[in-house]
Specification:
Elements: H1 7-16, H2 18-48, E1 56-62, E2 65-71, H3 77-95, H4 100-105, H5 113-118, E3 123-130, E4 133-140, H6 143-160
Antiparallel strand pairs: 1-2, 2-4, 3-4
Length: about 170
């Protein structure tokens, strides 16, 4: 005589298990985050002209503002020139209250940018060349602008999985 195992009841029990549901949810969340991160990196490459995976971002919140640093790990004169041109453009646009590039890269409004745009006359943006790229130094004495810069930097560190100092 042959035994028959009915799999339908077992499958129903497994599907109802909180551990299976949790693992499935976590896998879905990771895949969504992973694809969102990759899409952001691709938009970043379009906006900045350099490969986001082979460039190093640092977003520092400082007592008087912040600092955005972008460098190549190896000396590559073409990519370094591209980074410097991008950061000079960022400094100029941010100074005009134009935050469309981070909005494009992150596919939406970036925290802090509304206040930074509204208080553009109270914030200074200065480009400085670094050995393998450059930085945009951001300075203000305005408390509301300073808080907004801190939010901007924190968001950037998180989104880019980047280094940097919180204020």
């Amino acid at each position: 005589m042959r035994s028959t195992i009915h799999l339908a009841p077992i499958a129903c029990l497994l599907a109802a298990s909180p551990l299976v549901g949790q693992a499935s949810h976590e896998a879905h969340h990771h895949a969504m985050h992973d694809s969102s991160y990759h899409a952001m990196q691709a938009r970043g490459k379009m906006a900045m002209g350099v490969d986001q995976y082979t460039s190093v971002h640092v977003f520092d919140a400082l007592p008087d503002g912040g600092r955005i640093e972008l460098q190549r790990p190896e000396a590559d004169s073409t990519e370094i020139a591209t980074i410097r041109a991008h950061l000079q453009d960022i400094a100029a646009k941010f100074g005009q209250g134009d935050f469309s590039i981070p909005g494009f890269v992150h596919d939406g409004e970036v925290p802090g940018t509304k206040v930074m745009a509204a208080r553009k006359d109270r914030i200074e943006y200065q480009f400085n060349a670094l050995p393998k790229g450059g930085e945009v130094r951001i300075r203000t004495t305005d408390p509301k602008a300073l808080a907004a810069i801190g939010k901007f930097m924190a968001f950037q560190r998180t989104e880019h999985h980047a280094g940097g100092r919180p204020h």
